[in-house]
Amino acid sequence: MFHTPYAGLSVAADRLVEMLDQRGRPLLLAPKQTALARNMPHRVALVILRERDGRLWLAHRSRQKPDKRRTWDFSARGQVLAGEAQASAAARLLKESLGIPDAQPALRTVLPPLASEGARQCILFTAVRRGGQVFSPHDGMFVDKDELAGLAEHFSDLLSPCLLWCVQNGHV
Q1: Higher confidence at residue 6 or residue 31?
Q2: Cα 18 to the center of its chain, rounded Å
Q3: Which residue from 7, 47, 55, 99 could staple onto 136, CB 3.0 to 4.6 Å apart?
Q4: In the chain, domain spans
Q5: Angle, to 10 degrees, between the axis of helix 145-154 and the axis of helix 161-168?
Q6: What is the CATH number of domain 43-168?
Q7: Does position 157 have pLDDT exceeding 60, yes or no?
């Protein structure tokens, strides 16, 4: 659990996200599922895990996702919880998704609004897997930059729209 400025709430902060105003500032709190169902503006952390040799871990997007089923996506992605620092969210997602307990993600960029992401404000992080750091991937693969560029150029439908945009615009 992380420290949150929202102490004393009747709902646990780990079940809430901050809704954002037009300038990306927190406006109010809402349950995570409500934010998703109503496409309300909130923060999402996207994380690319790199090996020391430069290869990138791509995760296979969940079958439950209604958009672009079974596409290759970021190593980890998820909502930034109410009161959670963005980098802490990225580290939490790497731990939850890949079992990496002590990742130190670095901010890469804040993406501009993308139609594929709806009202979500996407924040891209990168993390380097340190030698000997074991992780437990569920479904994914390592690719080098040339392989990723080839996927983007020749098999773009196999990448999530947001990952494709990041590759095409030099963020990954």
Answers
A1: 31
A2: 16
A3: 99
A4: 43-168
A5: 110
A6: 3.90.79.10
A7: yes
